[in-house]
């Protein structure tokens, strides 16, 4: 049983929303719904470019900050200034890190079924392990494989192959659960794994059969 991390076990969107509001209020003003939505659009755009190997992690962060400043009508900044603003945002983001309240129930269900666990996550090695430590899951879910550690990111089939190799299992023996239908379900199945879509907001594809609204609903998929 392998989990995605961000927005599956770890509440990235909630943490980022709270952190963005705190950070923006400190140098601009209230975070409106429009600005918050724009911040997540910048995240998806530039983190996607990093995932595809087009930019460095530092550069995608600078582009996110720069894109926001442009929306705010602020002048462009030098890279060091962008890095400093990112550092301020990250502190606000990290201060609100928390896991979902159904994460514990999911681990209990998996343990009761006698299954091993693991995590496959896109993201920097140090940050993802830091998240697990802060939310109290270090050593409780493993192995933990990151895009940075593997040298490739979901949906690259090599990421799933690396996961299966680390587990010593054939892909068909691995069940993967995650919130992103394209990365965590479609791509996992293309790599030969079984997959369940965690659709917390009920916005996933209507034709998806293996869908759960909460990790508490995993039991039916563990047999």
Summary of the model, kept short:
The chain is an alpha/beta fold and 223 residues long.
Model description:
With 223 residues, this protein is of the alpha/beta class. It has 2 domains: 134 residues, Rossmann fold, CATH 3.40.50; 84 residues. It is built from 9 helices and 6 strands. The chain has a 6-stranded parallel sheet, with helices on both faces. Helix 1 crosses helix 4, helix 2 packs antiparallel against helix 3 and helix 3 crosses helix 4. The longest helix has 19 residues. It starts with a strand and ends in an 11-residue tail after the last strand. This is HAD family hydrolase. Keywords: Hydrolase. One of its GO terms (molecular function) is hydrolase activity. Pfam families: Hydrolase. InterPro entries: HAD-like_sf, HAD-SF_hydro_IA, HAD_sf, S-2-haloacid_dehalogenase.
Structure characteristics:
single chain, 223 residues, alpha/beta, Rossmann fold, 2 domains, six-stranded parallel beta sheet, 9 helices, 6 strands, 9% strand
